[in-house]
Amino acid sequence: MNREMQVKFSKVLRYLRYYPQDLWRVLQFWVVHLLKKRDESNHTYVKHLYQYFLKKRDRQSDIDFYTEQLDQGKVSRLGLLFSFLMIPASWEQKFFHTQGNYAHHQARLTLIQTALPAAERILDLGGAGLEPQGSLLTMGYPHCPKQIDIVDLPIEQRFFQSDVPLIQQHTTEQGTQIYYHYISMTDLSTFADQTFDLVWSGQSIEHITQAEADRVIQEVHRVLKPGGYFCLDTPNRQLTILQVRQGFIHPEHKFEYTPSELAEKLSDRGFHVIEQKAVSPMPMSYETGRFSRLELIHAIGLGDLPELGYSFYLSSRK
């Protein structure tokens, strides 16, 4: 057996070990569907999918969504079935000609461009990017701050390393001063009390432990001016646990929160949570308890119920 076959075989064994119920439901669905498929319509296929695979009562809006995807040829019947299973990213690209991460990125762009408050002095936790201005401005933050301080790990400590030289300082065309600090977000001692109007943590708090997060929140409270904002978005464990079931959605993640868990953490340390949003709302996955990759691919917006989002956003004030 060559190396490629060994890898495939090990993946099959892993699936059999961790997701035997999935395979049993697939077999059960196909047997029952083949026995009952007097009506060959896509509508009936989706109804059977809910009844015999998801084992959930269907809602008309759900049936209409998936039937439309089949009728328009955007997904095959096999692809629709596989959209509810744990599959590698290469299969996702093959079945759907795109990946859910692209849609989620679009939703996060909308978040940054519409939800974050204006601020003159910003601290961006984990905000280094490919552009010298950092990820916050690259993603379309619409305001023009006087200064952004970006905290991120040295390249040698990052999961994905690159040969891009470290930037110390940059000035944008609009005059915003960008300063880089290559330190851990868990140590903000370099910044004085009441320095910032806004602290932004974009998909970063999940990369540290709960104890470290407590220290970060306490330090953020210290460095914010009175009335300053602490805003963050992070994966929603209520949805990610449906996606992976074992571990977290990224090997670097130390803990993934539910919206109520993180909101309580902020409140316990003196913050007032004033706004919550879903980033890439996935109500069908939430209701069925089964992660739908096809739903994520179409989840490019924001919602008002944070528990429904693939990620969620919290805005809090000191």
Radius of gyration: 22 Å
- Reading side by side through the largest sheet, how are the strands ordered? 3-4-2-1-5-6-9-7-8
Secondary-structure element sequence? HHHHHHHEHEEEEHEHHEHHEE
Number of H- or I-type helical stretches: 13
Mean pLDDT: 88
Q: What is the H level of CATH, i.e. the homologous superfamily of the largest domain?
A: Vaccinia Virus protein VP39
Derived from helix and strand composition plus strand pairing, the structural class reads alpha/beta
The largest sheet, given as strand count, sense and whether it forms a barrel, is:
9 strands, mixed
Return residue spans where pLDDT drops below 50 for at least 5 consecutive residues: none
What's the β-strand tally?
9
Overall, the morphology is elongated
CATH architecture of the largest domain: 3-Layer(aba) Sandwich
Organism: Leptolyngbya boryana CZ1
Domain DUF4214: 38-85
Protein name: Methyltransferase domain-containing protein
GO biological process, one term: methylation
What is the topology?
Blueprint: H1 3-18, H2 20-36, H3 42-54, H4 60-71, H5 77-82, H6 89-96, H7 100-114, E1 121-125, H8 135-138, E2 147-152, E3 169-171, E4 177-182, E5 196-202, H9 210-223, E6 224-235, H10 237-244, H11 259-268, E7 272-281, H12 283-288, H13 293-297, E8 302-303, E9 309-317
Parallel strand pairs: 1-2, 1-5, 2-4, 5-6
Antiparallel strand pairs: 3-4, 6-9, 7-8, 7-9
